[in-house]
C-alpha cells in the first residue's frame, strides 16, 4: 500500500512517516509539506492511503480532499488535527474520510486507525453527535454505502440495483449493520448513526 503524509510541518511529517513505516500493510511512504508537492504525489503516485492535517498553511485539508476526490482520487483518508473538539471528527466523517485522529492522542491510536482502515473499516474515535456512536465506528466502506442508501429510504431491491449487486447481498450488509449496533430496524439504526 502506497501512503502519502501531507502536513505543512516537515518535522511532523518525519515523525508520522516513522510511525507509518512500522505498519506491515504500508510498502511506501511519501511526504509532502506543500500543496504543490501533495498534488503531484496524488496525480502521479497512485496513493492508497492519505494521512493529512485538517489545518494547512496553503489550504484547508477538507477542501484539498474534496478537490482530489472530484478529480478521481479513490484512496483511503485519515485526517488529524491538534483540535480536541469532536467537530473536526464529525466533519471528516461527513466529507467521506475513513478516519480521524486527534494529535493529542497516544501514537498507538494512529497505528490503530491505520490498521482498521487498511482492513476496510472506518475509525472515528470521538464524535459528539448523539446519533453517532461513542465508540470507534466499525462500518466497512461498503456497509456505509448501503446504510446511506437505506437511510435515504431506498428498499433493499433499489439499493441492490443502484449498486449493481444482488438483493441478498444488500440484506447481508443490512443484517450485519443491525447486529453491530444492536438494533432491529433501519429506523432504529438512523437514531444511533448519521452518515
Automatic annotation (TrEMBL):
The modification 4-aspartylphosphate is found at residue 53. One of its GO terms (molecular function) is DNA binding. One of its GO terms (biological process) is phosphorelay signal transduction system. It comes from the Bacteria. The keyword Phosphoprotein applies. The keyword NAD does not apply. Residues 2-118 form the Response regulatory domain. Keywords: DNA-binding, Phosphoprotein. InterPro entries: CheY-like_superfamily, EvgA-like, NreC/VraR/RcsB-like_REC, Sig_transdc_resp-reg_C-effctor, Sig_transdc_resp-reg_receiver, Tscrpt_reg_LuxR_C, WH-like_DNA-bd_sf. Residues 132-195 form the HTH luxR-type domain. This is DNA-binding response regulator. It comes from Vibrio lentus.
